[in-house]
Amino acid sequence: MTGKAATPRNLVINADCIAAMQAFGSGSVDFILTDPPYVTRFRDRQGRTVANDDNARWLRPAFAQMHRVLKDGGFCVSFYGWNKVDLFVEAWKAAGFRIVGHRVFRKRYASSARFLRYEHEQAYLLAKGDPELPARPVPDVLDFPYTGNRLHPTQKPVAVLRKLIGAFTQPGDLVLDPFSGSGSTLAAAQLLGRDWLGIELDVNHYQTAGRRMAALQERDRKAAA
């Protein structure tokens, strides 16, 4: 841990993720799955926005901390904005990540339409060091069910996140999402028997994620009783 406090587990933290991760132990996280702001000044049809989506100042320091807290041989799956891919790739490489895969998530609807109808999301698979190959690799194209974005303007489906977590972790591993939003990554980890840790800057989304995870934990306690 090298002078850092013990990294918490099964907790949602309301904070700037860079400052929060600075308190975590190096190599204390088994897997990172995150959907950071795309640096596109996103605004949905209801006028909802995403914190820090209007700047890229956080990009390099955030991924530098993610690389530090991730164990050697660990993986990070990061969604990204396709039209800002140069900024994301630069940040990942500067942090020390190696790009080892790319995933496309196929939608049955268009999130927007300009020069094209945009009917997919995308994420890169990043590695720290020289990881072992997964025993059951998932396809690089997956269907992406519509969530309705009721809890968050860019809410991701738990079913897809479960497949990613299941491919790269074991029960009891710690899954980190530094941009946890409404807690979809955390919910997927809980459902798979993994420990989880979320950080969210927006207080409303933090409260949503906290309520969501408390309900899942209570459900699991009752099932185990």
As a whole number of angstroms, the C-alpha radius of gyration is: 17 Å
Mean of all residue-level pLDDT scores: 94
Low-confidence stretches: none
Number of strands: 10
Largest sheet: 8 strands, mixed
Determine the N-to-C terminus distance.
35 Å
Strand content: 15-25%
Total number of helical segments? 6
Encode the helix/strand succession as letters: EHEHEHEEEEEHEHEH
CATH architecture label name: 3-Layer(aba) Sandwich
What does this structure look like?
The chain has 225 residues and is α/β, with parallel strands linked by helices. The chain has a single domain, classed as 3-Layer(aba) Sandwich (Rossmann fold). The chain contains six helices and ten strands, in the order E-H-E-H-E-H-E-E-E-E-E-H-E-H-E-H. It has helices at 17-21, 59-69, 85-95, 158-168, 184-191, 203-224, and strands at residues 11-14, 29-34, 70-79, 98-106, 112-113, 117-118, 120-127, 141-143, 174-177, 195-200. Helix 5 (184-191) links the parallel strand 9 and strand 10. Helix 2 (59-69) packs across helix 3, helix 4 (158-168) crosses helix 5 and helix 5 packs parallel to helix 6 (203-224). The N and C termini lie far apart (35 Å).
